[in-house]
């Protein structure tokens, strides 16, 4: 799982000197963010199951990889990455995006309170519902969270492209990570800005997540607005060259 | 340990406070066998299914199992409410289930065995944060309420020594201060919990509230409570009168009295209340604290006193303090001495398993990995079998 060693920027920027990157030099692409690790560093493996497999069960590739890991350099695992069975990369990313000023403790506690609030609301609905409806009510906060974010992801996005001195909003297919990022960003911004000042974040966020899970609410509306704008600017699609 | 202590009491009546050991009293087998004849046995159900509603301790088979408090009992037995997280759980599950644990069973056995001719024995529940002292106290209160005892329950004494809005100079004693709001709230809960006793108990003195109002000797106690509730300025004095009357009349044998105070270390700690000249008050200057201190003395008989220490709401105490000597201070320890210390500790492996089973039965643990052995081991590691921490962990899983 070697991630690209650095981010590249589209458009034209000043070429930085002294680059070390695995990304091939393309015209118009510039290194913007890079890591301190050189390319031979491999990512850490925190999955306990990987190490527990007995030797007999390993395939040739896995044996080869394990041999390599003995000699190759490995990056340090970030502090937030654990080998816990309850770890979820999407939740970790969301916590990082909610974090302000490096206060991970607060961001994490807000996330756990949100999950608890979602769970309690669903349990209330469950107990109030009749037997047939009980089968349809989802009580797992993690499924609700994942499904809500998936429902909020836009399929197509807009990118400003300069042509003839003017910027045009061109519809463009978004890569998966950009879609996930936009969904989370919209969710957090919606909760921070559009709600009453005195309501707490877990309450707001749980409400928004439940609405998005049912394909309703302001975040889904924002996604639909994005799709409509892309549809409206369909004529500019040929400005895209990639 | 505890057997030694109970034998010491009638033998010489000289109790050396230093010798009270802090080890959790293990119920000796012979004691349990003797008591099982007196206490009716319940039919224990398999697993951690909530058993019948009777909170009576029924021997060691019930240890680790949950028992259910009927929801209609909750407003009468606990009118001021249960601890916040537990009441959230009650609301979510639509049932109030407490785990029957060793310290509570010990206490229930002692209460069943009390000799009401002897002075009231004081039991002090102590332990680390989140181990279940308050819920054990609630278990005992429910037990006594079911047995028709008169309950004097102070849910959190810390609330009386901090952030009180209306402080008045007491009319009864110039040195002390009244707290009308807290006193009125307490009187309301007391009235709801002990409705049936208020008409039976008659007061033994005449009390003059002011030039025009007075309560004659021989009137029911309910009138004193009403007076405190209608005239909020006299509420603190009404509380003092109620406690005094209950103490003097419990010896008569008409009723059994249980005094249950949570956060009792507040009575001998420090306050954050200020006098008019902005200097901090000592707790003995508060009339409510003064009357409660008199109540937890052992100069009356006909009941028992169950107290729980609490560092969580306390003022100016270090976070790691959990022992009686640390939390009560010298003054409090001497005032409560001699008492029976009961240690409330973290879950044992069986209790932990039972707790997890209870959550799984109620589908509270929704994460798929939480059902696996790996998940359970991780929960045990993260919470260190501390009941409070486990509850908080399972809330978001």
UniProtKB/TrEMBL annotation, chain A:
Keywords: Mitochondrion, Ribonucleoprotein, Ribosomal protein, Transit peptide. InterPro entries: Ribosomal_uS7, Ribosomal_uS7_dom, Ribosomal_uS7_dom_sf. GO terms for cellular component: mitochondrial inner membrane; mitochondrial small ribosomal subunit. One of its GO terms (biological process) is translation. Residues 79-234 form the Small ribosomal subunit protein uS7 domain. Gene3D superfamilies: Ribosomal protein S7 domain. It is found in: Mitochondrion. Signal peptide: none annotated. The keyword Electron transport does not apply. PANTHER family: RIBOSOMAL PROTEIN S7. Belongs to the universal ribosomal protein uS7 family. This is Small ribosomal subunit protein uS7m. It comes from Enhydra lutris kenyoni (northern sea otter). The lineage of its organism: Eukaryota, Metazoa, Chordata, Craniata, Vertebrata. The gene is LOC111160301.
From TrEMBL, chain B:
Residues 38-62 are annotated as: Disordered. InterPro entries: P-loop_NTPase, Ribosomal_mS29, Ribosomal_mS29_met. One of its GO terms (molecular function) is structural constituent of ribosome. Its main location: mitochondrion. It is found in: Mitochondrion. GO terms for biological process: apoptotic process. GO terms for cellular component: mitochondrial small ribosomal subunit. SUPFAM superfamilies: P-loop containing nucleoside triphosphate hydrolases (SSF52540). Keywords: Mitochondrion, Ribonucleoprotein, Ribosomal protein, Transit peptide. The keyword Transit peptide applies. The keyword Calcium does not apply. Belongs to the mitochondrion-specific ribosomal protein mS29 family. This is Small ribosomal subunit protein mS29. It comes from Enhydra lutris kenyoni (northern sea otter). The gene is LOC111138895.
């Amino acid at each position: 799982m070697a991630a690209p060693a650095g981010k590249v920027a589209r458009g034209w920027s000043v070429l930085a000197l002294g680059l070390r990157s695995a990304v091939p030099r393309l015209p118009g692409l510039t290194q913007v963010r890079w890591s301190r690790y050189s390319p031979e560093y491999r990512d850490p493996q925190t999955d306990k199951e990987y190490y527990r497999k007995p030797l007999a069960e390993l395939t040739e590739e896995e044996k080869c990889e394990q041999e390599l890991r003995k000699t190759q350099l490995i990056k340090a695992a970030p502090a937030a990455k654990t080998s816990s069975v309850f770890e979820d990369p999407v939740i970790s990313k969301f916590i990082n995006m909610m974090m302000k000023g490096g206060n991970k403790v607060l961001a994490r506690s807000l996330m756990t309170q949100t999950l608890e609030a979602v769970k309690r609301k669903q349990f209330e609905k469950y107990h109030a519902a009749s037997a047939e409806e009980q089968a349809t009510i989802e009580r797992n906060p993690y499924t609700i969270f994942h499904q809500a974010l998936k429902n909020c992801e836009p399929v197509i996005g807009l990118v400003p492209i300069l042509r003839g001195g003017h910027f045009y909003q061109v519809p463009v297919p978004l890569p998966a990570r950009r879609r996930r990022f936009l969904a989370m960003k919209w969710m957090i911004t919606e909760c921070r800005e559009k709600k009453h000042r005195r309501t707490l974040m877990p309450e707001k966020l749980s409400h928004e997540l439940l609405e998005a899970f049912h394909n309703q609410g302001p975040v889904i509306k924002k996604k639909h607005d994005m799709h409509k704008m892309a549809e409206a600017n369909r004529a500019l699609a040929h400005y895209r060259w990639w | 340990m505890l057997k030694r202590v109970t034998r010491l009491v009638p033998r010489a009546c000289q109790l050396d406070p230093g010798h009270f050991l802090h080890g959790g009293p293990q119920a000796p087998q012979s004691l349990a066998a003797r008591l099982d004849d007196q206490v009716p046995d319940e039919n224990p159900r398999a697993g951690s299914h909530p058993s019948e509603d009777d909170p009576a301790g029924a021997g060691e088979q019930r240890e680790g199992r949950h028992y259910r408090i009927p929801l209609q009992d909750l407003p009468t037995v606990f009118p001021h409410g249960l601890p916040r997280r537990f009441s959230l759980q009650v609301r979510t599950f639509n049932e109030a289930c407490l785990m029957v644990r060793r310290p509570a069973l010990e206490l229930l056995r002692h209460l069943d065995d009390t000799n009401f001719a002897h002075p009231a024995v004081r039991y002090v529940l102590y332990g680390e944060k989140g181990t279940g002292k308050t819920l054990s106290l609630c278990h005992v209160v429910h037990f006594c309420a079911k047995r028709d005892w008169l309950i004097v329950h102070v849910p959190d004494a810390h609330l009386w020594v901090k952030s009180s809005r209306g402080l008045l100079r007491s009319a009864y004693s110039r040195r002390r201060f009244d707290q009308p709001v807290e006193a009125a709230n307490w009187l309301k809960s007391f009235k709801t919990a002990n409705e049936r006793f208020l008409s039976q108990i008659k007061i033994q003195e005449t009390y003059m509230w002011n030039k025009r109002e007075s309560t004659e000797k021989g009137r029911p106690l309910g009138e004193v409570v009403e007076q405190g509730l209608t005239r909020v300025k006299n509420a603190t004095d009404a509380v003092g009168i109620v406690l005094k009357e209950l103490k003097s009349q419990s010896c008569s044998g008409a009723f059994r009295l249980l005094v249950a105070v949570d956060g009792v270390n507040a009575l001998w700690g420090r306050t954050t209340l200020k006098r008019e000249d902005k200097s901090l008050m000592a707790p003995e200057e508060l009339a409510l604290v003064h009357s409660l201190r008199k109540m937890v003395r052992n100069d009356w008989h006909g009941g028992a006193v169950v107290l729980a220490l609490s560092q969580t709401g306390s003022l100016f105490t270090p976070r790691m303090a959990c022992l009686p000597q640390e939390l009560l201070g010298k003054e409090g320890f001497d005032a409560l001495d001699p008492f029976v210390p009961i240690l409330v500790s973290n879950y044992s492996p069986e209790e932990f398993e039972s707790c997890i089973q209870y959550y799984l039965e109620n589908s509270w643990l929704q994460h798929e990995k939480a059902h696996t052995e790996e998940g359970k081991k991780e929960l045990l590691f993260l919470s260190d079998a501390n009941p409070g921490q486990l509850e908080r962990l399972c809330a978001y899983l």
